Amino acid sequence: MKKEIRELVDKGLMLPLMEEFYTIQGEGYFKGTAAYFIRIGGCDVGCHWCDVKESWIAELHPPTKTETIVDNARKYSDTVVVTGGEPLTWDMTELTKQLKAVGCKTHIETSGAYELTGEWDWICLSPKKMKLPTQKVYDNANELKVIIYNKDDFKFAEEQASKVNANCILYMQPEWSKRDKMIPQIVDYVMANPKWKVSLQTHKYLNIP
Fold this sequence. Notes:
With 209 residues, this protein is α/β, with parallel strands linked by helices.
């Protein structure tokens, strides 16, 4: 990457854009809501069950001017979801500033592994064991979404729930490939521990992105 482009990326004036699309939010609190998704490349958290591993290597995704990303988003929806990869790998200040300036509500889906940047209307924290969230993300998360891959993840979920703020909504979501095995266990767990809610990847049931 050329030095001048790298400097713009470091400032958040360009971002490694993997893809952008208008669809229905399939998970968590806003499931069923139309939203414009911006998927930013780059992630070193390394979940073995990640369903977008092609997002991991930032260099594979072209640095795109932040103003171009915002111009595309504003044409479709006033709700914009920034996801990855791990979007907090990059400085989100400029992206959210520009989105706010055109009247968009800013949502982020993050592992929380990096410092929180940007101005967000909604923070979905999905923590991973390999690289735990920063305290600022715990403190500001609106929803906690823990992916349940095996029974050990229930303990991890409770550990993470003890670290978020009191108003954070708690979700357990089965990892897609293990859903048939884990959904009955999640249902039983949530019924026994009703502070939790069940989240499903409804967009996959709807066969949409």
